[in-house]
Amino acid sequence: MAKHPIYLVDDDDSVRRSVSFMLKTSGLEVESYGDGLHFIKDSGALDPGCVLLDIQMPKMDGLEVQQELKKRGIPFPVIVMTGHGDVDVAVKAMKAGAIDFIEKPFAKDVMLAAVEDGFEKIENAGAKSTRREEAQLLLNGLTPREHDVLEGLVTGYPNKTIGYDLGISARTVEIHRANLMRKLEVSNLSDLLRIAFAAGLGERDE
Fold it and tell me: What is the pLDDT of residue 206?
């Protein structure tokens, strides 16, 4: 299991103690918060980690904490902790982006499996983020016209159509295409498109 911090947010002191003990004896790092407000206040400065979030809390409930994390652009995977009869609220949390929900009292294997899923989300998100940043840096070296040609290629247009849309000849499109492929150090269209999609081109057309 990859190691990331776990942020345990629950207003019940006994739950915080028991869950912290369960996770720490499994070799995991746990930071506990007695309410959502304190967690949200610290969230911007925290290392990427998995959030174990109680759904029923005073001041700020679990759904409100989720909404605030999303508003702040903090993509920590959230596992919702519920009491019996809270399944409908847990479903709302899942629709809002929680990766799982677990019911109290917690079985250790269920808790650890949920946390492992959360860690996998962090690993995958980190890899995707790194790939996107690298691809975007590569595209920053293109001229505006090369960007235009690349946009056409991402859309699936042939050189002739791209040239028509841009008011240039198909031959000029070929030159721009050759230049951008040289700059991106690719030799075929599939590699070119892989970089373009990794950088986020074409997403608005999905």
Answer: 42
